[in-house]
Amino acid sequence: MSSNTKQDVFAAVPDAQGRFGDYGGKFVSETLMAALAELEAVYRELSADAEFQRELDEDLTHYVGRPSPLYEARRWSDKIGGARIFLKREDLNHTGAHKVNNTVGQALLARHMGKKRVIAETGAGQHGVATATIAARLGLECHVFMGEEDIHRQALNVYRMKLLGANVISVTSGSRTLKDAMNEAMRDWVTNVDDTFYIIGTVAGPHPYPMLVRDFQCVIGREARAQSLAQTGRLPDALVACVGGGSNAIGLFHPFLRDEAVAMYGVEAGGHGLATNQHAAPLNAGTPGVLHGNLTYLMQDSDGQIMHTHSISAGLDYPGVGPEHAWLKDIGRVNYVVANDDEALRAFHSLTRIEGIMPALESSHALAYAEKLAAQMTPQQMIIVNLSGRGDKDIHTVAQLDGIEF
Amino acid sequence: MSRIAGRFQQLAEQRRTALIPYVVAGDPGQAFTVPLMHQLVENGADIIELGVPFSDPMAEGPVIQLGHERALANGTTLLKVLEMVREFRVSDSTTPVLLMGYANPVMHMGYARFADAAAAVGLDALLTVDIPPEEVDSINRELQRVGMDNIFLVAPTTPDERIARIAARASGFIYYVSLKGVTGAGHLDTVEVAARVNAIRQHSNLPVAVGFGIKDAASARQVSQTAEGVVVGSALVHAMAQVIEQGGTPDAAIAAAAGLLGQIRKGMDSAAS
Known about the structure:
A: about 400 residues, alpha/beta, 2 domains, B: alpha/beta
């Protein structure tokens, strides 16, 4: 009985207004409202359409390379000496991260809507690369907005996007990172709304984006749940994923929300530490407000201005977070914790040396927390960590910290 | 009758179109906003629209974005903007003033607290770019409680049934966004604007002001033939920024903005005759 009630709670969000509890909604200028309504109508129609689902599944299987493995990191688990740790290998997807699950889906929507031009914002460049990739395959014109600061940090991904035929636009306003790239993408969309599809890369933005990006990313959790049952005969005791905007985390968590015994940990970027204010952890240290079309937890000052954030990983360097995470925090279903820059960096090196898997710095935050969590658990227990992306793009950042120049 | 309704009624009797300048509060400096407001009135402003600076002004083009950045850099906050309105009211109790900004600073202050503070300083209306009718009811309750107008945007993309929904919640006037794009963009289609303004009139008796692509006397004159109000923003912000960039003083900058507004006023009035 009570489990039925709980099921309804998770199935009921977002509501018709795009709300997850108090969070979410559509806080955008009037010019975009009609486009959002059109997108929602098309999405609702296609998500119930067997042919569209078949197309999507085919792309996920043969283009992305799904299902991604659920790999037991035995040496790493043994070294930590606690729970068994399994890695959901989203790093093995085409383009090297979970982002492509969503861009494949949204690009199919764009094609069905007859939009010939796609735009995207990107922080670490993974979403930009995933968008440029699918745009190349479908022959769509592609423009990617990227903060000037991130262009320096992620030069490799910038070049990848250019090779794929995308136009990368350097954003020099504000803090010159992901949030400013999103502002600029919104400005482009409002100007070219008739022929342009905005492929948002995370579970933020105005409704219906947090819903549809979640739905496209849920393939991660659906697979992980089935793989866990098939490989171990049981469900995991805990899930761990990093949270910037929160798309890889919601993708892993959502299919497990009704499994009450499965604990969940969303790991925010602690930067130099919460006490320093140099971090990107709105769920841990922020307050609710409106940014980029949705009501959610934000890093903001006493005047309601959005604060600059800091994280070693460009993909987590964002002052907001998806509204469903804000709701899951408030209802207590997911625990939101932090890992600092140095902890993430140690986990990066540790997994690389012990398992021969080089994780993205974003995913390294999840690994750092999983390490602490596993140590407090028993070898009879198991954790699934979302290894959301591979670390090749971060080699320059890591080398620089080690004092090595190429 | 609200100060805004009264002003439009008075203008209708005089067969004049409202000229509504937009400037960013705190740009080029906090001390210059109130003198600028007075000079704008002397040069033909009927209603003043003060931009509340925000860190992420998503609807603004580059010119006004930079205005927001300058204002934030010198420490302008929503509370300080309200103080500017109070100071303006000391010597001008007739010119309506509205704030245009983004949801978050107002929400962070608290809708009720904002409404009380804004009413106390003599503010007339609020326009929040990113609060569409779907999200407006909680703030509208507070604005109505203190008798303040809520100004809504209607866009070129707004379908008829939405215009009706907006009209049901709007007061003061309706702000028609004359183009798909950000503030200061340059592709105004006056025939299209006239058609859309007429569509709004099917649903509302409120005056309609047009903004977003109007930058000089010629475009203001064209639009003033179909609308009750004309909003000019980026052109003024740009005029001030140019003076400062060329080494001019803030006083010279605000004089330049006021001078430009005066020219636009002349252009509009010559159309009426």
